[in-house]
Structures are given as structure tokens and as C-alpha cells.
Write a structure and sequence with these properties.
With about 240 residues, the protein is mainly alpha-helical. About 60% of the residues lie in helices and about 5% in strands. The chain folds into two domains: about 100 residues, Orthogonal Bundle (434 Repressor (Amino-terminal Domain)), CATH 1.10.260; about 100 residues.
């Protein structure tokens, strides 16, 4: 939905008085909310009179709900939206914290940094469009990397064979998911020890009774982690 540019007008500084600021926020909410309600009704192909019949009220009541100049009861707004198959998403923001109050797991409200809004503007897109495309792109890359990891671990590569010997009760898919998290670590040493810990946590039954010391096994784990990272580095470069 293309929203009218009410925001530029409302953001003009009028007063430092808290009551005036609150009044401005209420006006901003009413303008956007009633504009959205009218557009949803029109997209449903209903007149105010037709919607009033569905709601069991008079046409004047619908007109009042769609007016930014009137007070609105939350229950009436929810009833209006529910009748049109729509939801009201509500969040509370305090500082850097954002709390979603609406009960709708299918829709998530997030706090978008200014840099994202600037990128969206540069791409001549709305922030919502830009974020949706970015998420789809990220999800596609995520799936591709996971599949590539599984393919490598299932291969006859000597490193993959050694890793599978340490799987224990865990599956290749589980190990791939864990390795994927650590590929994005910025420090090389962090990646190395994280991958080593993944391998150490998956020693196969009886592996610890090979007759070697813990110190030797630690060195072998680090060597294997380093070999595995060399293989994964090429893959990671393709999915950054």
C-alpha cells in the first residue's frame, strides 16, 4: 500500500511540550490507520454501507471509524479489520528494545536501521520491499550453503571421511548446520577453535579409547579442523 506522505508534515517541529508531542503522535496514528482501513475496504470491493451490514452497525459508524478526526475504540477497529480478513500489528519501542504486542506469528515487526532506509531509497524501493527482497536473497544463499556443506560431508573427500568418523550419534545435516554458523565468524582463530569444538563434541563411541593421550587427540582435532576449514573456505567465498 502506497501511504500518503503524512510523515514529513507531522515531523515538523512545533513544540517541545510533551502534550503537544503526544497529540502529534496520536494524529499520525489516526491518519495512517484510517487511510489503511479505507484502502482495505475498497480493495474488498465494499462500500461503507455494505461493510456496515456485515458489522451489524449503521453506515455512520463505519464513516466514523474511517475518520482521522474521531476517537477510535480498539475493539471497534479490530472488529472492522477482522471482518475484512485483516490484522492489526502492534509493537512497543523503548530505546533499542522493540516488543511486539500483536498475536500474529506470521508477521514480525522489526526495527529497521537508518542505513537500510537509505539503501532502499537509493534503490527506488520502499523499505518493506527492500527488506523482503533482502530476506529472500539471504534465505536462498543460506539454503545453498547448507546443501553445499552436506554434499561435501557426504563425499569421498579424505577430510569428509575423517569428519564422518567423529559424527557419533549426530547426522551430517546437524553437523552442517553447526558448521554453517561458524563460517561467518570474523576472526580466523575463532573459526578454527569453534570447528574443533564441533568435532570434539562428536567423537564416535570407542574413539576416546584408541590408546592415545588427550593431548595428541587435541592436536589431531586442530589439524582436522584446519583441513576442514580450508575446504569450507572456498565454499564460504561463494556464499558470502
Amino acid at each position: 500500500m502506497k501511504k500518503p506522505n503524512f510523515q514529513a508534515w507531522l515531523q515538523q517541529k512545533v513544540s517541545d511540550d510533551s502534550e503537544v508531542i503526544l497529540a502529534g503522535k496520536l494524529e499520525y496514528l489516526r491518519l495512517y490507520l484510517t487511510d489503511a482501513m479505507r484502502e482495505i475496504r475498497k480493495k474488498a470491493g465494499l462500500t461503507q454501507t455494505q461493510l456496515a451490514k456485515k458489522l451489524g452497525v449503521k453506515q455512520a459508524a463505519v464513516s466514523k471509524l474511517e475518520s482521522a478526526l474521531k476517537e477510535h475504540e480498539l475493539e471497534s477497529v479490530l472488529h472492522y479489520l477482522h471482518t475484512l480478513g485483516a490484522d492489526l500489528l502492534v509493537a512497543v519501542k523503548q530505546g533499542d528494545e522493540l516488543y511486539q504486542a500483536s498475536d500474529n506469528e506470521g508477521s514480525l515487526l522489526v526495527d529497521v536501521p537508518d542505513v537500510v532506509a537509505q539503501k532502499a531509497l537509493a534503490a527506488n524501493m520502499s523499505v518493506r520491499e527492500y527488506v523482503r527482497i533482502a530476506v529472500e536473497k539471504f534465505s536462498g544463499e543460506h539454503d545453498g550453503l547448507r546443501k553445499a556443506l552436506v554434499k561435501l560431508l557426504e563425499s569421498d573427500n579424505s577430510v569428509a571421511v575423517k569428519v564422518r568418523a567423529r559424527l557419533g550419534s549426530r547426522t551430517i545435516q546437524e553437523i552442517a548446520a553447526e558448521l554453517e554458523k561458524y563460517l561467518s565468524l570474523s576472526e580466523e582463530e575463532d573459526r578454527l577453535f569453534s570447528v574443533k569444538n564441533v568435532l570434539a563434541a562428536n567423537v564416535a563411541v570407542g574413539e576416546s579409547n584408541r590408546g592415545t593421550s588427550d593431548e595428541i587427540d587435541e592436536i589431531e582435532l586442530l589439524d582436522l579442523a584446519e583441513e576442514l576449514l580450508e575446504k569450507l573456505a572456498e565454499m564460504f567465498d561463494n556464499y558470502k
